[in-house]
Amino acid sequence: MKLIEIYIQEVTRRLPEKLRADIALELRSTIEDMLPDHYNEQDVKEVLNQLGSPVVLANGYKDQPMHLIGPRYFDVYMSLLKMIVPIATVIACITIITQYFIDYNGEEAILTVVLSMLGNGIATIIEVGIQVFFWLTLTFALIERFDKDKEQQPLTSSLEKWTADDLKKVAYIPKKKAISKFEVFGSLMWTAIWATLYFYANQLVGVYEGSGGRLEFVIPALNQEVLLKYWPLVVVLVGFEVILALYKLIKAQWTKRMAIGNAVLQVISTIVFIIILVNPNLMNPDFIIYLTEIFNITKGQLNMWVIGGAIMIFIFSAAISVYDGFKKATIR
Asked: What is the pLDDT confidence band of residue 63, given thresholds at 50, 70 and 90?
């Protein structure tokens, strides 16, 4: 008998005060109906085992979910989380980079600015991720609790019950043909990195020497004035790469049109960079002297190794990218 009272106590203490007396009477009556006439402790245990955990039973009386986000909304919640977090972090990163460019007055070393920007960028990405996670989770937790529909079947992205007709809205994408969001954002990040290196080459690309426990930029590798002569072409290439990356994000799979666009981009960018590389004044004279002395080679040999090697790498990587794009686009 004592077990019954304890069980009822364990159930009712989890309920609102106004419900406890009525639920206790109902539960006691249910238990007594389930027991035989002359029951013993073992009979009581069997009945209580059939009723189950007091936590689950109390939750049934409260008519509220025990989970934060249940199966009905979980898939929609995860889909929105995966979509919003990358977009929010990219917007935050672009805002930080723009702010640094606007505030930069030329007095601080560019490497220090870049490291500071990276540190703030990582901190902002974490903060934005936590904020999006918190508010989206809170929103869905509230929806879960205010939803009076007892149906637990997962909803579609349009918050409707799934039917076979929903399959018509989904494109079949073979795994080898798919373009992941990670690939798209990696592409955008790479564009931002090489564009920054290009326009600030005289402050980033060159010879660094250790001095007083820190790296000091002593000799720029490239002539910035020569690089800036080609800035309109480079800006067009940056814009082309960004547009192609966004197109990939929208389509999420390789298409023939995308492969053609990628091929055009690779050919044009290779031609542009070869034009820049063959400019005889591209490399800084001090940098040429520095390398020729270290490696004990002539200027002609240095040009052949550096310029010739860079041209070969550009052509080879462009050919691989074009081939890979058409190969993926033709997968069925």
From this structure: low
